[in-house]
Structures are given as C-alpha cells and as structure tokens.
Amino acid sequence: MEKRPPLPPFTKESARVKVQAAENAWNTRDPFTVSLAYTVDTEWRNRSEFVNGREQVVELLTRKWEKELDYKLKKELWAFTDNRISVRFEYEWHDHSGQWHRSYGNEMWEFDENGLMQRRFASINDTDIKEEERRIK
C-alpha cells in the first residue's frame, strides 16, 4: 500500500511538514509527480471544476500550467485536526501575453490513513499585478 508520510493524526509539526511537502511538489509544476500525493479516487473542487481521480488531476494540472506560466506558490498552515488540514495560499504567474497575476485562496484537505489526500476543496481568486509587484520569486 502506498504511504505518504507524515500520516494522520496530525500534530502541528507534522501538519506543517505536510503543507511544505505540498508546496514543494506543486512548485515542480509536474502534474504526474503532484498527483502521486492523492488517492487514486481523490475528489477535488478546484474553483468551479470538479475532479475525480488521479487521471483527472493530471489533466487539470496540465491545462493549468500550460496557461499559468512561471507559476510560483507559497502555502501556509491555517488549521488542522486528526486527518484534515486547512491552508491559505497565494501564487503568482503570467499568461501568454505577459500579464502577471496573483491568485489567493484557501484549501481544505482530508487524508486517508496512508497520508494520501482523498479530498481537496479549493477556493481561488485572481488579481492582475505588475511584474515589479511580485512577492514570490
């Protein structure tokens, strides 16, 4: 069975480690690598899109990073319980025209006993920024 430590139940320290691991993985911008942190039947709400399973995660992330160029993400632990973690995040990216954006949001994560994320619900808002306003590099 796949295991992705740290495993629930989470402590403050293990939740922070889990959040940092997620940030690191997403900053690779490799959809397949990112998908391995999720159960094969994972359920997502990402903005207004609903995704089920790793294959659809890879498809969503591939589309995302084809559009969101030079993506750079920062996550912060917000709260945790036994097998759930809540984070706030922001990321910066530019589109094909060169316009920079900052995206803000919150995610709620639920993990199985093996430390794989089985549910991810993300609310995300975008704002245009100038390149010199970037904070995450």
UniProtKB/TrEMBL annotation:
<dbReference type="InterPro" id="IPR009783">
    <property type="entry name" value="DUF1348"/>
</dbReference>
<protein>
    <submittedName>
        <fullName>Nuclear transport factor 2 family protein</fullName>
    </submittedName>
</protein>
<dbReference type="InterPro" id="IPR032710">
    <property type="entry name" value="NTF2-like_dom_sf"/>
</dbReference>
<dbReference type="Pfam" id="PF07080">
    <property type="entry name" value="DUF1348"/>
</dbReference>
